């Protein structure tokens, strides 16, 4: 029988990193995947340029940027493999990168450079990669495991599950990790699509969809959490970074708040417009600060005819109330079809934060998106994949 010291199922971000680390420690490693190519999500990430980390993913700032039933769980791995560690790998390969906004690091060129780097590093570390290999079953065998594949049975001392979440089923995402966790007695928290566009009921959509293609900077909030980034109107509802971020916090039946002029100077601007351009209608005034079609929609909602020069302070404040506190009630999300990640997953109570090993099943590790750790948009999810993969590879 084909015997290995470490088998990793899933040749994505987390699995490849775990393979590199275990291989460098001299372990005989095999990485398996049912897909034809490794790292497919890396390849399509960040609009093809891979937002491979975020400089704010560790330390104090990083603390509230990962959602989990136990938000402290991720901190151990994130402190042991930091954004600087991944940048060092990228620099060693001479891959050019740049910082965009908000600490987000992207390749200057193509995301395939990151996939290439990981695959080459795995090979250099002595690890093997076997693709197009469906996994039929996993069983405990003594202190190790048997992995039944479409191409025969493999034995291993340590097994690392890195098969990701449910997002983008078209690309081969499965609920494999969750089923396996349950098979071995681990709990799985509720899973739902996250970093995903929000949809609206037909009545609300009829008002919003004529704005499809319009983008504006806004603060989108849910409770005390808010994100000031781009908001994009689409034919199905709302998207853009601010919406994707809030989708991880929003729940069915709840409203989100949208502040269309989040810099706080809106009232002063309206007063200046009243003084300088008193004959203009309110939507014309607003179109100096908002995209024209959006200003028109807000103006229609306000139902305040006449010239801005005739508006009292109170009336201008009512305009700003509408601009700063637009409350919208999404009806759902676009689902796993377009979600960047899966929120929830394998309950961290069952895992050792330093090694990602299942507490009740020595030798079995779960890493990456499959675990109940979900980062903000902006490179946080890859940093979690690298860090959790690294610590599992270090321990396996
Ligand atoms: P990942 O999904 O990467 O890998 C899992 C692997 O397991 C895959 O290769 C799959 O084929 C394999 N697999 C699944 N089921 C299997 C089975 N039953 N048998 C065998 N193999 C199986 N994040 C970020 O930080 N910056 C970014 O720019 C982006 N951009 C982005 C864009 C888009 C469109 C998406 C969908 C997602 C992102 N993300 C992102 C999120 C990021 O891609 C994600 O968090 C990581 O890829 C998760 O890494 P994992 O290794 O855990 O899973």
Explained architecture:
This protein folds into 2 domains: 2-192 and 343-395, FAD/NAD(P)-binding domain (3-Layer(bba) Sandwich); 198-333, Translation factors (Elongation Factor Tu (Ef-tu), domain 3). The protein has 14 helices and 21 strands. The strands form 5 sheets. Strands 1, 2, 7, 8, 9, 10 and 20 form a 7-stranded mixed beta sheet that branches. The model has no long low-confidence stretch (mean pLDDT 96). The protein is of the alpha+beta class and 396 residues long. Strand 13 (215-222) and strand 14 (225-233) form a beta hairpin. Dihydroflavine-adenine dinucleotide binds next to helix 1, helix 2 and helix 14. The site of dihydroflavine-adenine dinucleotide has 35 residues, from helix 1, helix 2 and helix 14.
Write the layout of secondary structure elements.
Elements: E1 2-9, H1 13-24, E2 29-32, H2 40-44, E3 51-54, H3 59-62, E4 66-67, H4 75-80, H5 83-92, E5 97-99, E6 104-107, H6 112-124, E7 128-130, E8 135-141, E9 144-149, E10 152-161, H7 176-183, E11 192-194, E12 198-199, H8 202-208, E13 215-222, E14 225-233, E15 237-239, H9 241-247, E16 256-259, H10 266-276, H11 282-286, H12 292-302, H13 313-324, E17 326-328, E18 332-333, E19 341-343, E20 364-366, E21 374-375, H14 380-395
Parallel strand pairs: 1-2, 1-10, 2-7, 10-20
Antiparallel strand pairs: 3-6, 4-21, 5-6, 8-9, 9-10, 11-19, 12-15, 12-18, 13-14, 13-16, 14-15, 16-17
Helix pairs in contact: 1-6, 1-14, 10-13
């Amino acid at each position: 029988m084909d015997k290995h010291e470490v088998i990793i199922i899933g040749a994505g971000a987390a699995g490849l990193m775990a393979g590199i680390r275990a291989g460098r420690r001299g372990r005989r490693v095999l990485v398996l995947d049912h897909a034809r190519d490794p790292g497919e999500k890396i390849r399509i990430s960040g609009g093809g340029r891979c937002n491979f980390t975020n400089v704010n993913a560790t330390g104090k700032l990083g603390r509230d940027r990962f959602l989990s039933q136990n938000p402290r769980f991720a901190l151990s791995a994130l402190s042991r493999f930091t954004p600087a560690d991944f940048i060092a790998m990228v620099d060693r390969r001479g891959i050019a990168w740049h910082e965009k906004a908000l600490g987000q690091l992207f390749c200057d060129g193509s995301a395939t450079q990151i996939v290439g780097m990981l695959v080459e590093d795995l090979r250099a570390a002595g690890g093997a990669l076997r693709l197009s290999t469906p996994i039929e079953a996993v069983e405990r065998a003594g202190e190790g495991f048997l992995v039944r594949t479409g191409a025969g049975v493999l034995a291993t001392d340590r097994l690392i599950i890195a098969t990701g979440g449910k997002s983008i089923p078209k690309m081969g995402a499965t609920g494999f990790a969750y089923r396996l966790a349950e098979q071995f007695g681990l709990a799985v928290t509720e899973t739902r699509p996250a970093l995903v566009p929000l949809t609206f009921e037909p009545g609300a959509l009829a008002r919003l969809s004529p704005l499809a293609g319009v983008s504006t900077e806004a603060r989108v909030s849910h409770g005390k959490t808010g994100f000031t980034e781009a908001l994009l109107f689409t034919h199905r509802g709302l998207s853009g970074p601010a919406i994707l971020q809030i989708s991880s916090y929003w729940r069915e039946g709840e409203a989100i708040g949208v502040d269309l002029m989040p810099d706080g100077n809106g009232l002063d601007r309206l007063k200046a417009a009243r003084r300088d351009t008193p004959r203009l209608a309110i939507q014309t005034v607003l179109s100096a600060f908002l995209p024209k079609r959006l200003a028109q929609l807000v103006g229609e909602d306000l139902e305040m005819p006449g010239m801005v020069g005739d508006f009292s302070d109170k009336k201008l404040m009512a305009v700003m109330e509408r601009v700063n506190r637009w409350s919208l009630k999404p009806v759902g999300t676009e689902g796993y079809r377009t979600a960047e990640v899966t929120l929830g997953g394998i309950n961290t109570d069952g895992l050792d934060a330093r090694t990602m090993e299942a507490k009740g099943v020595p030798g079995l590790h779960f890493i990456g998106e499959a675990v109940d750790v979900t980062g903000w948009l902006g490179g946080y999810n890859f940093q979690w994949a690298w860090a959790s993969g690294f610590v599992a590879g270090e321990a396996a």
